[in-house]
Amino acid sequence: MNQTLFLLLLALPMIFQIIFGRKAIGESIKLTFFKVCLITFLSQFIFFIIAFKILSNKLQSESNGQIHCGMPFVGLIGLEILRSIIILVIIFIQFLIKRSYNRNNN
After folding, report:
1. Among 3, 65, 94, 105, which one has the highest count of C-beta atoms within 10 angstroms of its own C-beta?
2. Which residue ranges traverse the bilayer (predicted)?
3. Would you report the helix, strand and coil content of the chain in percent, each value rounded to 5?
4. What is the pLDDT of residues 19-55, one digit of tens each?
5. What's the whole-model pTM score?
6. Can you give the residue range of the structural domain that contains 67?
7. What is the CA radius of gyration of the chain?
């Protein structure tokens, strides 16, 4: 259950950006494209903090409460950097689509 929640926390901002970014481009929702991008970035960092807390609670020793190995945190930070790059690529592609969509409408 924790692994599913952990992966869902990491994937939700990308899913949100893809779905609602597309809807913002087509203007079928009241949010602007900029607001959707802002929500995506804020939720990405909030979900990263939550995933960090879940991971730290899972790695703590039951006897003294200390963390024995910090390598999973390095992996989580690396995954966060990779996820940020992927979200930026998605936003850039959606921005190019929005720009070409606006040119065709004018």
Report:
1. 94
2. 31-52, 73-97
3. 80, 0, 15
4. 999 999 888 888 899 999 999 999 999 988 988 888 8
5. 0.82
6. 2-105
7. 18
